[in-house]
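Quick entry between incubations.
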Amino acid sequence: MPAVQETVEKVRRIDVDQYKYGFETAIESEKAPKGLNEDVIRFISAKKGEPAWMLEWRLEAYRRWLTMREPHWARAEYAPIDYQDIYYYAAPKQFKAPKSLDEVDPEILRTYEKLGIPLREQEILAGVARSDGSGGARVAVDAVFDSVSVATTFKEELKKAGVIFMPISEALREHPDLVRQYIGSVVPITDNFFATLNSAVFSDGSFVYVPPGVRCPMELSTYFRINERKTGQFERTLIIADKGSYVSYLEGCTAPMRDEHQLHAAVVELIALDDAEIKYSTVQNWYPGDSEGRGGVYNFVTKRGDCRGKNSKISWTQVETGSAITWKYPSCILRGDNSRGEFYSIAISNGYQQVDSGTKMLHLGRNTTSRIISKGIAAGHSQNTYRGLVSAHRKATGARNFTNCDSLLIGDQCGAHTIPYIEAKNASAVFEHEATTSKISEDTLFYCMQRGLSEEEAVALVVNGFVKDVLQQLPMEFAVEAQKLISISLEGSVG
Amino acid sequence: MNAEIRTMRTQAELALLDAFANHKDRLVGARDERVAAFKKFEEAGLPHRRVEEWKYTDLRALMRDAKPLAAKPDAAAIAAAREAGRIAGVDARRIVLVNGTFVPELADTAALERGLTITSLAEALVAPGNALAGLGRTVQTNDVVVALNTAFMADGVVIRVAKDAAIERPIHIVHVFSGREAAATFTRSLVVVEPGAKLTLIESHEGAPDVDYQVNTALELVVGDGARVEHVKLGLEGSKALHLSSTMAAVGADAVLRDFAFMTGGAVCRNQLFIRLDGASTQLVVSGANLLKGRQHVDTTMLVDHAAGGCQGREKFKSVVDEQSRVVFQGKIIVRPGAQKTDARMATHALLLSEEAEADNKPELEIFADDVQCGHGATAGALDEELLFYLKARGIPAKEAEALLIQSFVGDAIENVAHEGLREALVAATAQWLQARS
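Done. Structure below.
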């Protein structure tokens, strides 16, 4: 595998606990007053020029949120969060929706350039060498900077295909009926503490609508960047694949290095109607904190897909390497008959990171199938937990699930945990679950090292083999990035 | 959802509060422990579905009332229990507890082997000295059902096997409920097997089929270094019974502990196992078979704590769920920091025979050491159509083919029982259950 060699070299060039996306962009920004109250919500809503019903919706969520308690069942320990010490809205100053890329602040463009995210059309994601010089797959990008979307590329071309891809704040103005019909229909405002908070204060995110029978001509991608200090990011993504359509969506995220914790509470809702398919891939690389466990992003995210139609399919693929704490369970509600849900995950924790992640597969329709492949790798002083639920409803005849969750431990200071819930309420349901936890076998390492690989190279090779099942599910551009990311995350964990 | 909810005391909780207030002066011995344990219950109430360990067995809802504490058995009850618990083909030393009380005339304590002592808990509780040293401290737990057992424990069996004594004849603790009025029994047994000793312990529970009696039983098992212990439990309670059972075992180094539970009786059963491996190179085999029908609810919740390294753990559970019954399995393996070279495997399989049956599985791994091999597997599903077809194609009637497949499915777990006579008795009991089904 040539990529492995490349990975190892990449690792060498970078010092221990060097988070390469940790720079800060010096840019003036406009913020809502610190803290949270109804006025702040009105402020956000007014900034976005939202319809009145949306403000009402937000306020209802806020009032609900006030009655809720922060959940602490996850295996994560952290100091109490002061919700009044966060800016809920931050936007680059003098920001008004730019007509074209030329109007975007060059500072911001440089930021994305540094992150390897092309905002100029026709460009491609960094890291993919093309020997034949052809363009290959193109990717449309929606770039979200703190609380606002700064640019969306390939809008025209997508429009031709009938695909709507725009910031959700814009969608609220241009397609209010569509948004109103679907928002909150998968993750209702009463869902959970963080989702309810998000419903009240969400600032931006992406909106995708793929009309019936359309196969989206390119990959869609959103890149989230937290820049401001003491700012929470609360984005909301809504993707609707109408009958017989297909869309592949990628999400990436980074944040500057800070010694404070930043809150990221996003909500993602996916809706697949009859025969539609949504593929959602995430490479999550929020700042994980330094080697002593100071700083880092609290990533408390609610992601859920609803296979509403017959024969629909939703697939989640995630590579989780960042964040101080990850609390995230991308789920599928398999409502339509013959629908299918998939979850492929690589969660890597190092340093003092705490990961509590997994999925839920709720089988409601007949002949629904699901597949879960989860690979957790714990190193350093980190704690890595897989938590998942597979359930078959009484009427879900013929439901099938296969789950495989493996954990790898590197070093004796870390922990790997598996907490699956398997609930079969139907005799014809067939659920299979297997999990293993082990360390990299001495024999395997010896075998590799005997053939001239250094210990670090050998570990990288074994780890890449361990996560291969999941990497294969990622679109190519992401797979290469993800592979590098994995090596960087694990660096310094050997020996 | 996450909103603050203050709960009212249920009827059962109120009855338990009353019972303790009225009886605490009459319950003999361990007064401080009883009061401290009852306080735990007062604070937490009965476990409910928001308590993670009780997620699938909401005792607050399932236990509608608390029955009065069982009175000492009368002559008729004792006479009725005379032959209780005999297992064909197994020559065991039987000790019968009737309605939660140790009955000396039904305790086969004649000609005890060298190194073996057997007394009743009630006797030990009032005996001078430290006959019960360590009671309640085998494995610490915050579980409320264990706390209730400590608060109300009335009687039980205290068995000691001295160092290096190999007791070949199994000891069988028979729990019988033979009352006509519903009542609650709280039994607690302590079994200490000293280093190098050997013991086979059978524990069985049975009772009147038409009385909704309540059983809260606990067993503390101390397995010394190099000791070999097999514990086989038969849950054959009457069909209306509530059965709450807690086994707490602390195991030393180089020891072997085999634990098996066979559950077919009771309306609502909870089998809790708290096992801690304190010494290296120990072998632990925990398994069980559940055969359920009607509206039975049987929950097995197991915690295996690898506090020392180099131990091997094998857990295998098989459940057959028919009609509207529900089986729950929650298993948690903890590997503590430093418990290197742990080798643990946990498997749980449920066979659903009816559209309305339910199987809930939660096999957990919690691992803090890196040089380990741990795994778990869980499956739930119906009988394999192809296997059935294969058998039917060879002229075996459908019911018989089903029975054969179920027998072999359950047999896989029963194989873990080392005592041959017991193993055969369990196979026969499975066949009997299957016969009653068709």
